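Input C-alpha cells:
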C-alpha cells in the first residue's frame, strides 16, 4: 500500500514527465551509440578485407615472382614474413620496389603504384606475420620537437653513413647510404623502425618516439638552412669541398698558363 502511494505521488509530481523524457532520450542515445559502433566496426572490417584482397591481386601480379606467392621469398627476393606494413609502405612509396633490375641496392625512383595500391599491398603483406605498422599522422608530427636534440641524435646515429647533412655516402661492396633530401617524414620514421637494406633497426629502446620525431625535425630543418658559403657542393664537409675548390682553382690557373704560353708564341 505504501509503495502504491509513493508511486502515485511520483507520477503526480509536476516534473515527472521531464524525468521520463530525459531517461528515454538517454536510453535511445545509448542504444544508438552501441549500434553505430557496431556498424563502424563492421564497415572497417569489410574495408580492410577489400583492401587485403586488392593487395593480394597486386602482389601476385607485381611481387610474387621475386618474393613468392605467400611472401616466403625466393632466390631473387627475401622473405616478407613479419616485415610489416611499414616496410612495404617505405619501399614501394619511395619507388625502390619493385626493382627494375636486380642489383646490390634498390635505388629511389618515382613510385609505380598509387597511394591506394600501396596501402592495399601493405595491408596484404601485413597478413603474413606481425611487424611494424605504418606510422600514424600523430606519430610523425614533429611540430614542437627538439631540433637541437634531433641534431645530436642524428650525428651520433646517422651521420657516419648519411653524412652530417643527410647527403648520403659510400659504404662497402658497392653499397651506399642514400641522400635523404627527398624522404618524407613518414618514410624517415618507417626507415628507423624497419631498417631497410643496410640500415639498422632503431627500436623504441634505442630511440624513443619523441627522439625519432626530433630527428625528423632536424632533417626537415636542414632543408631550409641557407648555405652562407655559396654553393653547397653536396655539403660533404670542409676537407672534401676544399679539395674540390683547390682542384678546380688550380685547373683554371693551369689552363690560363697554357693559354698565355700559346698566345706568347
Amino acid at each position: 500500500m505504501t509503495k502504491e502511494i509513493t508511486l502515485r505521488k511520483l507520477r503526480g509530481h509536476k516534473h515527472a514527465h521531464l524525468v521520463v523524457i530525459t531517461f528515454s532520450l538517454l536510453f535511445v542515445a545509448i542504444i544508438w551509440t552501441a549500434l553505430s559502433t557496431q556498424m563502424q566496426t563492421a564497415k572497417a572490417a569489410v574495408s580492410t578485407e577489400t583492401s587485403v584482397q586488392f593487395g593480394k591481386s597486386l602482389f601476385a601480379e607485381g611481387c610474387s615472382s621475386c618474393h613468392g606467392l605467400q611472401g616466403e621469398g625466393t632466390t631473387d627476393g627475401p622473405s616478407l614474413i613479419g616485415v610489416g606494413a611499414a616496410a612495404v609502405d617505405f619501399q614501394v612509396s619511395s619507388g625502390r620496389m619493385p626493382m627494375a633490375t636486380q642489383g646490390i641496392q634498390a635505388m629511389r625512383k618515382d613510385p609505380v603504384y598509387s597511394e591506394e595500391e600501396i596501402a592495399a599491398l601493405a595491408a596484404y603483406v601485413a597478413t603474413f606475420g606481425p611487424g611494424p605498422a605504418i606510422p600514424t599522422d600523430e606519430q610523425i608530427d614533429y611540430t614542437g620537437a627538439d631540433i637541437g636534440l634531433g641534431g645530436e641524435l642524428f650525428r651520433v646515429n646517422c651521420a657516419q653513413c648519411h653524412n652530417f647533412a643527410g647527403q648520403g655516402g659510400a659504404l662497402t661492396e658497392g653499397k651506399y647510404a642514400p641522400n635523404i633530401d627527398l624522404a618524407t617524414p613518414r618514410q624517415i620514421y618507417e626507415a628507423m623502425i624497419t631498417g631497410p637494406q643496410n640500415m639498422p633497426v632503431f627500436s623504441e629502446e634505442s630511440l624513443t618516439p619523441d627522439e625519432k620525431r626530433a630527428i625528423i625535425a632536424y632533417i626537415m630543418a636542414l632543408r631550409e638552412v641557407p648555405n652562407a658559403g655559396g654553393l653547397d657542393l653536396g655539403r660533404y664537409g670542409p676537407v672534401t669541398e676544399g679539395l674540390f675548390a683547390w682542384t678546380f682553382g688550380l685547373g683554371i690557373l693551369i689552363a690560363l698558363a697554357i693559354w698565355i704560353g700559346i698566345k706568347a708564341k
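Residues 135-225 form a domain with the Cytochrome Bc1 Complex; Chain D, domain 2 fold (CATH 1.10.760.10). The mean pLDDT is 83.
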